[in-house]
Automatic annotation (TrEMBL):
Segments crossing the lipid bilayer: none
Protein family per UniProt: Belongs to the Mu gp47/PBSX XkdT family.
Domain Baseplate protein J-like barrel, chain residue ranges per copy: 91-172
A matching Pfam family: Baseplate_J_M
Domain Baseplate J-like C-terminal: 290-369
Ranges of residues in domain Baseplate J-like central: 193-285
Taxonomic source organism: Cupriavidus basilensis
Protein name: Baseplate J/gp47 family protein
Amino acid sequence: MPYSRPTLTQLRTTVAADIAASLAGSDPLLRFSNLGIMGTAQAGLAHLHYGYLDWISKQAVPYTATGEYLEAWGALKGVYRKDATAAGGQVILSGMVGKLIGAGTNVVRGDGRIYTVQVSVTIGGDGTAIASVVDQATGAAGNCAAGTVMSLSMPIAGVQSNGVAAAAFTGGADVELDDDFRGRVLSAFQQPAEGGNEGDYVRWATAVPGVTRAWCARNGFGTGTVVVYIMLDQANAVSGGFPQGTDGVATDETRSGVKATGDQLTVANAIFSQQPVTALVYVVSPIATAINFTITGLSGASSATRASILVAIADVLLRKGKPGGTVNLSDIESAIAAIPGTSGFVITTPAGNIVCSTGHLPVLGTITYP
């Protein structure tokens, strides 16, 4: 059975009882007595020692380890915490034809986030130029939606100060959190490498910065092929977490001319050096399948309750959904039932478990409360 750690109050009571038993006639419970003060201090020190031992016990196994100790457990299996990555994208700038926007020029977002132009561009005949930029800092905060206003940090003669993001900025991700990292570490201990089984491909894919979920499909594109589906829920949050690029194989793969681009290429290249030489690996994006819900019995629910329901359903689809998989309706019902004020609800749409066809991933559509 688990060890019951004594509370500070219990320790103070125990120390006081020991003093009273060892020193006849004393009363260590008096508020301002020297014995009472020393007993309280002793109990406090003992409580700190219990806390330190409790912390040590948690670092002794990867299941509860944190911080650098969790990283040490991961290193034993060759699993390392993913660093933060910088967001990037393209900015449309306008001006006089022929004006140069040099590499290293900075553009600033409305909140002060700074991005740097990577390659010099010239204003074309239509009076615009598209400059590729990268966030000077790292993290998911650098991601933004298409159309976000960007301004030159320093004026350039003949170039308008304001521009806009040509498409959503993606790729920015924060340093991997302990909970996410622990999941990968535990997977490495529970499923040791076996020369290219399904778990190996999932680990190789999720080790790439930004990738949060991955699935492996055997012979997905024919005999001898391996299809790896990926999602970047944080780095590509503005696009629903779906990878930005085209599906295909690694750059050095010579058996297929369908080369991946963007996020898919990054993962394909990372897997290529680790995969079995006989496997032809395609990295692809799942196909989003919106699942609409109709929930009766909650027409009078508050906006806060409805927001909680939305979050609960999205969480189940995130945890349980997979390309070509099934999400049990009972899991969604349990998540909603745990929200206060939802008693008596009935999900009428969908009418049963959510079953997705090959390659399709369920995402939350609309929720209707008739």
